[in-house]
From TrEMBL:
One of its GO terms (molecular function) is methenyltetrahydrofolate cyclohydrolase activity. It catalyses: (6R)-5,10-methylene-5,6,7,8-tetrahydrofolate + NADP(+) = (6R)-5,10-methenyltetrahydrofolate + NADPH; (6R)-5,10-methenyltetrahydrofolate + H2O = (6R)-10-formyltetrahydrofolate + H(+). Catalyzes the oxidation of 5,10-methylenetetrahydrofolate to 5,10-methenyltetrahydrofolate and then the hydrolysis of 5,10-methenyltetrahydrofolate to 10-formyltetrahydrofolate. The gene is folD. This is Bifunctional protein FolD.
Amino acid sequence: MAATVIDGKAFAAKVRERVKAHVTRLVEEHGVMPGLAVVLVGENPASEVYVRSKGKATREAGMKSVEHKLDAATSEADLLALIGELNRDETIHGILVQLPVPDHIDADKVLAAIDPAKDVDGFHISNVGLLGTGQKAMVPCTPLGCLMMLREELGSLSGMEAVVIGRSNIVGKPMAQLLLKDSCTVTIAHSRTRDLPGVVRRADIVVAAVGRPNMVTSEWIKPGATVIDVGINRIEKPEGGTRLVGDVDYEDVAKVAGAITPVPGGVGPMTIACLLANTVTACCRKLGLAEPEGLTA
Ligand SMILES: Nc1nc(=O)c2c([nH]1)NC[C@@H]1CN(c3ccc(C(=O)N[C@@H](CCC(=O)O)C(=O)O)cc3)C=[N+]21
């Protein structure tokens, strides 16, 4: 039986509707419009596309969107000064510094400078620690989007075997924390894992976040498993031009999986929806309101 396709684009549209409803309520009942500031340092065509679509989504949700495009030669001190200003700006509830930053800037230092309450990426060590200890954190957007899709597809995740492939701070590690919080038995596998296919074959839930095009194939997948593909790899087409593929060999894996996310149209759109969701969450917390329904982990 062919796998169910998890339509991330359609689900993201639903999440964005929810975001919009919360924004309307914040504006009408509290006179506050959530604001998101995105900071981009240097020129990177892929980043610029992403920043533009984020700005558009932010405005469509009825929120304030601010973009700061800084020259590639911007000093670390100048970037830190801008973050300080955004931290103090009452109209800004979320701050995102697009990664990667140029080599002469220390990314860890920059992330540490963001007010943890405005850290909508969830990359500040305070938020990492809060998530790891089961406290109220800002949760990284991509893992949050993956979790929302898994819950939507599977209902309760309790007791399931989950294997996360990839140990990055932005996806693998926080994804594992969220799955653990939902009572999965969690394995983080990576490039040094012995018998990676054998480890992945145990999984009811597979989250692939390695950055290697089409790495995961059907022999790795337990029949009926749910497969979330976080990879976004641009590869050359034989006939010229490029196309986006994930870390999962979609056509192949779809033959055995129970459900699978496509690339594009899977995790990517959910990441943007969750960025908006996190901005609303940050705004609600600042105002001392209840957690916005359907937008948090
Ligand atoms: N501080 C920070 N936070 C981030 O969240 C962050 C970042 N830096 N740096 C870059 C990556 C990349 N990223 C994407 C989000 C959505 C799509 C997305 O929506 N992709 C579409 C396809 C877009 C296309 O066709 O090119 C899809 O998957 O359907 C892609 C990439 C967030 N990132």
